[in-house]
Design goal:
Number of helices: 6
Shape: globular
Structural class: alpha/beta
Number of strands: 17
Mean pLDDT: 95
Low-confidence stretches: none
Strand order of the largest sheet: 2-1-17-16-14-3-12-13-15
Distance between the termini: 25 Å
Helix content: 10-25%
Order of helices and strands: EEEEEEEEEEHEHEEHEHEEHHE
Protein backbone atom coordinates (compact mmCIF):
# COMPACT_ATOMS: atom_id res chain seq x y z
CA UNK A 1 0.00 0.00 0.00
CA UNK A 2 1.17 3.48 -0.87
CA UNK A 3 0.80 6.29 1.65
CA UNK A 4 -0.77 8.37 -1.13
CA UNK A 5 -3.73 5.98 -1.11
CA UNK A 6 -4.78 7.70 2.13
CA UNK A 7 -4.58 11.27 0.88
CA UNK A 8 -7.56 13.61 0.46
CA UNK A 9 -8.16 17.28 -0.22
CA UNK A 10 -8.57 19.40 2.90
CA UNK A 11 -8.94 23.20 2.77
CA UNK A 12 -6.97 24.93 5.53
CA UNK A 13 -10.03 26.85 6.68
CA UNK A 14 -11.66 23.59 7.84
CA UNK A 15 -8.93 23.00 10.45
CA UNK A 16 -10.58 24.01 13.72
CA UNK A 17 -8.44 26.53 15.61
CA UNK A 18 -10.53 26.88 18.76
CA UNK A 19 -12.86 24.58 20.69
CA UNK A 20 -16.58 25.19 20.72
CA UNK A 21 -18.00 26.78 23.86
CA UNK A 22 -20.23 23.73 24.40
CA UNK A 23 -18.24 20.50 24.09
CA UNK A 24 -21.30 18.55 22.92
CA UNK A 25 -22.25 21.04 20.18
CA UNK A 26 -19.92 19.49 17.61
CA UNK A 27 -21.36 17.80 14.56
CA UNK A 28 -21.37 14.03 14.26
CA UNK A 29 -20.94 12.07 11.06
CA UNK A 30 -22.29 8.54 11.49
CA UNK A 31 -20.71 5.96 9.18
CA UNK A 32 -21.92 2.39 8.69
CA UNK A 33 -18.71 0.42 8.28
CA UNK A 34 -20.45 -2.42 6.44
CA UNK A 35 -22.14 -0.50 3.62
CA UNK A 36 -20.62 2.99 3.79
CA UNK A 37 -23.94 4.74 4.53
CA UNK A 38 -23.47 8.25 5.93
CA UNK A 39 -25.71 10.27 8.22
CA UNK A 40 -25.19 13.84 9.46
CA UNK A 41 -26.08 14.51 13.08
CA UNK A 42 -24.95 16.40 16.19
CA UNK A 43 -22.70 14.98 18.88
CA UNK A 44 -25.26 15.20 21.66
CA UNK A 45 -27.26 12.61 19.69
CA UNK A 46 -24.62 9.95 20.36
CA UNK A 47 -27.12 8.69 22.95
CA UNK A 48 -29.34 7.54 20.04
CA UNK A 49 -26.66 5.22 18.67
CA UNK A 50 -25.74 3.36 21.84
CA UNK A 51 -27.95 0.72 23.45
CA UNK A 52 -28.26 -0.35 27.07
CA UNK A 53 -25.50 -2.88 27.70
CA UNK A 54 -23.06 -1.27 25.27
CA UNK A 55 -19.80 0.11 26.64
CA UNK A 56 -17.78 3.22 25.83
CA UNK A 57 -14.05 2.84 26.49
CA UNK A 58 -12.44 6.19 27.39
CA UNK A 59 -8.76 7.10 27.69
CA UNK A 60 -8.26 8.91 31.01
CA UNK A 61 -4.74 10.16 30.30
CA UNK A 62 -4.03 13.75 31.33
CA UNK A 63 -1.92 16.03 29.15
CA UNK A 64 1.19 17.51 30.69
CA UNK A 65 1.89 21.24 30.16
CA UNK A 66 4.96 19.91 28.41
CA UNK A 67 5.94 22.70 25.98
CA UNK A 68 8.78 24.69 27.54
CA UNK A 69 10.54 27.83 26.36
CA UNK A 70 14.07 28.40 27.61
CA UNK A 71 17.57 29.56 26.71
CA UNK A 72 20.91 27.85 26.23
CA UNK A 73 22.96 28.29 29.36
CA UNK A 74 26.11 29.31 27.47
CA UNK A 75 24.82 31.53 24.66
CA UNK A 76 21.32 32.61 25.68
CA UNK A 77 19.89 31.30 22.39
CA UNK A 78 16.15 30.61 22.59
CA UNK A 79 15.13 26.94 22.62
CA UNK A 80 11.72 25.28 22.63
CA UNK A 81 11.53 21.86 24.26
CA UNK A 82 8.59 19.47 24.15
CA UNK A 83 8.60 16.69 26.76
CA UNK A 84 7.26 13.52 25.16
CA UNK A 85 8.00 10.52 27.31
CA UNK A 86 9.58 9.86 30.69
CA UNK A 87 12.22 7.17 30.22
CA UNK A 88 13.55 6.64 33.75
CA UNK A 89 13.91 8.99 36.66
CA UNK A 90 14.44 12.48 35.29
CA UNK A 91 15.48 11.35 31.81
CA UNK A 92 12.96 12.32 29.11
CA UNK A 93 12.49 11.83 25.39
CA UNK A 94 11.88 15.27 23.89
CA UNK A 95 11.66 17.27 20.68
CA UNK A 96 13.96 20.30 20.54
CA UNK A 97 13.47 23.32 18.28
CA UNK A 98 15.75 24.37 16.67
CA UNK A 99 17.36 20.97 17.19
CA UNK A 100 20.63 21.96 15.53
CA UNK A 101 21.39 24.21 18.51
CA UNK A 102 20.98 21.40 21.01
CA UNK A 103 24.01 19.11 20.95
CA UNK A 104 25.04 16.46 23.45
CA UNK A 105 26.12 18.29 26.58
CA UNK A 106 23.98 21.39 25.93
CA UNK A 107 22.15 22.70 29.00
CA UNK A 108 18.92 24.68 28.65
CA UNK A 109 17.48 26.73 31.50
CA UNK A 110 13.82 27.56 32.07
CA UNK A 111 12.23 30.08 34.41
CA UNK A 112 15.49 31.68 35.53
CA UNK A 113 16.87 28.31 36.60
CA UNK A 114 13.75 26.74 38.17
CA UNK A 115 14.29 23.91 35.69
CA UNK A 116 17.28 22.85 33.60
CA UNK A 117 17.55 20.22 30.87
CA UNK A 118 20.89 18.76 29.78
CA UNK A 119 21.06 16.89 26.48
CA UNK A 120 22.56 13.42 26.94
CA UNK A 121 21.66 11.91 23.56
CA UNK A 122 20.79 13.11 20.05
CA UNK A 123 18.17 11.06 18.17
CA UNK A 124 16.59 11.43 14.73
CA UNK A 125 14.22 14.14 13.44
CA UNK A 126 14.93 16.65 16.18
CA UNK A 127 14.62 14.16 19.02
CA UNK A 128 16.75 14.68 22.11
CA UNK A 129 17.07 12.74 25.35
CA UNK A 130 17.56 15.16 28.23
CA UNK A 131 18.08 14.92 31.96
CA UNK A 132 16.04 17.37 34.00
CA UNK A 133 17.15 19.09 37.21
CA UNK A 134 14.79 20.97 39.53
CA UNK A 135 13.73 21.28 43.15
CA UNK A 136 10.43 19.95 44.47
CA UNK A 137 7.81 18.11 42.38
CA UNK A 138 8.21 18.08 38.61
CA UNK A 139 4.46 18.34 37.88
CA UNK A 140 4.26 21.50 39.97
CA UNK A 141 7.27 22.96 38.15
CA UNK A 142 5.66 22.15 34.79
CA UNK A 143 2.37 23.70 35.89
CA UNK A 144 4.32 26.89 36.62
CA UNK A 145 6.53 26.98 33.50
CA UNK A 146 4.95 24.85 30.79
CA UNK A 147 2.29 25.42 28.14
CA UNK A 148 -0.23 22.95 26.74
CA UNK A 149 1.40 21.19 23.75
CA UNK A 150 -1.17 22.02 21.11
CA UNK A 151 -0.53 20.41 17.70
CA UNK A 152 1.39 22.54 15.15
CA UNK A 153 -1.68 23.08 12.94
CA UNK A 154 -3.38 25.03 15.77
CA UNK A 155 -2.09 28.59 15.61
CA UNK A 156 -4.16 30.17 18.40
CA UNK A 157 -3.47 29.93 22.12
CA UNK A 158 -6.14 28.56 24.46
CA UNK A 159 -7.89 30.91 26.86
CA UNK A 160 -8.65 27.93 29.10
CA UNK A 161 -6.00 25.18 29.27
CA UNK A 162 -8.60 22.69 30.49
CA UNK A 163 -10.27 22.74 27.07
CA UNK A 164 -7.39 20.58 25.85
CA UNK A 165 -8.19 18.05 28.57
CA UNK A 166 -11.09 15.62 28.67
CA UNK A 167 -13.47 16.05 31.61
CA UNK A 168 -12.37 12.59 32.81
CA UNK A 169 -8.59 13.19 32.45
CA UNK A 170 -6.83 11.76 35.49
CA UNK A 171 -3.47 10.05 34.89
CA UNK A 172 -0.75 12.55 34.00
CA UNK A 173 1.73 11.67 31.30
CA UNK A 174 0.44 12.49 27.81
CA UNK A 175 2.05 14.72 25.20
CA UNK A 176 -1.30 15.23 23.44
CA UNK A 177 -4.98 14.93 24.28
CA UNK A 178 -7.07 11.91 23.24
CA UNK A 179 -9.19 14.34 21.26
CA UNK A 180 -12.26 12.17 20.58
CA UNK A 181 -12.97 12.41 24.30
CA UNK A 182 -13.04 16.22 24.24
CA UNK A 183 -16.67 16.14 23.04
CA UNK A 184 -18.04 14.72 26.28
CA UNK A 185 -19.33 16.63 29.28
CA UNK A 186 -20.01 15.15 32.70
CA UNK A 187 -23.74 15.62 32.07
CA UNK A 188 -23.64 13.70 28.79
CA UNK A 189 -21.67 10.87 30.37
CA UNK A 190 -24.22 10.70 33.18
CA UNK A 191 -27.08 10.62 30.66
CA UNK A 192 -25.45 7.68 28.92
CA UNK A 193 -25.04 5.82 32.19
CA UNK A 194 -28.65 6.56 33.16
CA UNK A 195 -29.67 4.89 29.88
CA UNK A 196 -27.71 1.76 30.69
CA UNK A 197 -24.54 2.43 28.70
CA UNK A 198 -21.40 1.35 30.57
CA UNK A 199 -18.29 3.52 30.86
CA UNK A 200 -14.87 1.88 31.07
CA UNK A 201 -11.53 3.65 31.48
CA UNK A 202 -8.09 2.75 30.18
CA UNK A 203 -4.89 4.79 29.97
CA UNK A 204 -2.60 5.37 27.01
CA UNK A 205 -0.11 8.21 27.23
CA UNK A 206 0.07 9.75 23.76
CA UNK A 207 3.68 10.18 22.67
CA UNK A 208 6.04 10.95 19.82
CA UNK A 209 4.03 9.26 17.07
CA UNK A 210 1.37 11.94 17.30
CA UNK A 211 3.85 14.58 16.14
CA UNK A 212 5.60 12.57 13.45
CA UNK A 213 4.26 12.34 9.88
CA UNK A 214 4.57 9.17 7.84
CA UNK A 215 7.84 9.72 5.96
CA UNK A 216 7.95 6.51 3.89
CA UNK A 217 6.06 5.71 0.69
CA UNK A 218 5.24 2.11 1.58
CA UNK A 219 2.75 1.98 4.45
CA UNK A 220 4.14 -1.27 5.83
CA UNK A 221 7.61 0.28 6.19
CA UNK A 222 6.41 2.84 8.74
CA UNK A 223 7.41 2.25 12.36
CA UNK A 224 5.26 3.48 15.23
CA UNK A 225 6.83 4.81 18.43
CA UNK A 226 6.02 2.96 21.64
CA UNK A 227 3.47 4.43 24.06
CA UNK A 228 2.65 3.33 27.61
CA UNK A 229 -0.77 1.79 28.29
CA UNK A 230 -2.59 0.36 31.27
CA UNK A 231 -5.89 -1.42 31.86
CA UNK A 232 -7.22 -2.40 35.29
CA UNK A 233 -8.75 -5.69 36.35
CA UNK A 234 -12.09 -3.94 36.88
CA UNK A 235 -12.16 -2.55 33.34
CA UNK A 236 -11.22 -5.94 31.90
CA UNK A 237 -13.96 -7.67 33.89
CA UNK A 238 -16.56 -5.13 32.71
CA UNK A 239 -15.57 -5.49 29.06
CA UNK A 240 -15.73 -9.28 29.21
CA UNK A 241 -19.19 -9.08 30.80
CA UNK A 242 -20.38 -6.67 28.09
CA UNK A 243 -19.30 -9.06 25.35
CA UNK A 244 -20.78 -12.09 27.11
CA UNK A 245 -24.12 -10.27 27.36
CA UNK A 246 -24.15 -9.29 23.68
CA UNK A 247 -23.21 -5.64 24.14
CA UNK A 248 -20.90 -3.69 21.86
CA UNK A 249 -17.52 -2.28 22.86
CA UNK A 250 -17.04 1.20 21.38
CA UNK A 251 -13.61 2.78 21.66
CA UNK A 252 -13.55 6.54 22.16
CA UNK A 253 -10.54 7.57 20.10
CA UNK A 254 -7.81 5.73 18.28
CA UNK A 255 -5.74 5.60 21.49
CA UNK A 256 -8.41 3.52 23.22
CA UNK A 257 -8.74 1.35 20.11
CA UNK A 258 -5.00 0.70 19.93
CA UNK A 259 -4.86 -0.18 23.62
CA UNK A 260 -7.72 -2.67 23.37
CA UNK A 261 -6.31 -4.25 20.22
CA UNK A 262 -2.87 -4.57 21.81
CA UNK A 263 -4.31 -6.38 24.83
CA UNK A 264 -6.50 -8.68 22.73
CA UNK A 265 -3.63 -9.54 20.39
CA UNK A 266 -1.35 -10.44 23.28
CA UNK A 267 -3.84 -12.19 25.56
CA UNK A 268 -6.83 -13.27 23.48
CA UNK A 269 -9.17 -11.69 26.02
CA UNK A 270 -9.63 -8.45 27.94
CA UNK A 271 -7.42 -8.66 31.02
CA UNK A 272 -5.47 -6.51 33.43
CA UNK A 273 -2.39 -5.39 31.53
CA UNK A 274 0.22 -2.66 31.20
CA UNK A 275 3.27 -2.05 29.07
CA UNK A 276 4.40 -0.39 25.86
CA UNK A 277 2.62 -0.67 22.55
CA UNK A 278 3.79 0.24 19.07
CA UNK A 279 0.86 -1.42 17.30
CA UNK A 280 0.30 -0.09 13.78
CA UNK A 281 -3.17 -0.75 12.38
CA UNK A 282 -3.81 -0.39 8.65
CA UNK A 283 -6.12 -2.08 6.10
CA UNK A 284 -5.92 -5.84 6.28
CA UNK A 285 -5.95 -5.82 10.06
CA UNK A 286 -8.78 -7.77 11.73
CA UNK A 287 -10.15 -6.06 14.83
CA UNK A 288 -10.57 -8.21 17.93
CA UNK A 289 -11.21 -5.72 20.71
CA UNK A 290 -13.73 -3.18 19.42
CA UNK A 291 -17.09 -3.18 17.63
CA UNK A 292 -17.22 0.53 16.90
CA UNK A 293 -15.15 3.69 17.12
CA UNK A 294 -15.90 7.29 18.02
CA UNK A 295 -13.15 9.48 16.59
CA UNK A 296 -12.28 12.88 15.17
CA UNK A 297 -11.30 13.68 11.58
CA UNK A 298 -7.61 13.09 10.98
CA UNK A 299 -4.73 14.41 8.87
CA UNK A 300 -4.35 13.21 5.28
CA UNK A 301 -1.90 10.30 4.88
CA UNK A 302 -1.68 9.83 8.65
CA UNK A 303 -1.54 6.54 10.57
CA UNK A 304 -4.91 7.50 12.09
CA UNK A 305 -6.60 7.62 8.69
CA UNK A 306 -5.07 4.21 8.04
CA UNK A 307 -6.51 2.87 11.30
CA UNK A 308 -10.06 4.01 10.56
CA UNK A 309 -9.67 2.67 7.02
CA UNK A 310 -8.83 -0.73 8.49
CA UNK A 311 -12.08 -0.61 10.45
CA UNK A 312 -14.48 0.74 7.83
CA UNK A 313 -12.65 0.23 4.53
CA UNK A 314 -10.52 2.79 2.71
CA UNK A 315 -13.18 3.65 0.13
CA UNK A 316 -15.86 4.16 2.77
CA UNK A 317 -13.55 6.39 4.81
CA UNK A 318 -12.45 8.52 1.86
CA UNK A 319 -16.09 8.93 0.78
CA UNK A 320 -16.99 9.99 4.32
CA UNK A 321 -14.07 12.43 4.48
CA UNK A 322 -14.95 13.95 1.11
CA UNK A 323 -18.54 14.32 2.35
CA UNK A 324 -17.26 16.00 5.51
CA UNK A 325 -15.21 18.46 3.46
CA UNK A 326 -18.18 19.22 1.20
CA UNK A 327 -20.45 19.77 4.22
CA UNK A 328 -17.85 21.96 5.95
CA UNK A 329 -17.18 19.79 8.97
CA UNK A 330 -14.44 21.02 11.32
CA UNK A 331 -11.28 18.90 11.30
CA UNK A 332 -8.62 17.68 13.75
CA UNK A 333 -8.25 18.16 17.51
CA UNK A 334 -10.94 20.79 18.13
CA UNK A 335 -13.12 19.68 15.25
CA UNK A 336 -16.19 17.51 14.77
CA UNK A 337 -16.60 13.77 15.37
CA UNK A 338 -17.25 10.59 13.44
CA UNK A 339 -18.97 7.49 14.78
CA UNK A 340 -18.04 4.32 12.91
CA UNK A 341 -20.57 1.64 13.76
Amino acid sequence: MDVRDFDFYLPDELIAQTPLLDRTASRLLVLDKDNGAIKDDVFSSITDYLKPGDCLVLNDTRVLPARLYGVKEDTGAKIELLLLKQLEGDKWETLAKPAKRVKKGTTITFGDGLLTATCIEETDQGGRVVELAYEGILHEVLDQLGEMPLPPYIKEQLDDQERYQTVFAKNRGSAAAPTAGLHFTEDLLQTLQDRGVHLAFITLHVGLGTFRPVSVEDVESHEMHAEYYQMSEGTARLLNEVKENGGKVVAVGTTSARTLETIMNENGTYCEASGWTSIFIYPGYKFKGIDGLLTNFHLPKSTLVMLVSALAGREHILQAYNHAVKERYRFFSFGDAMFIR
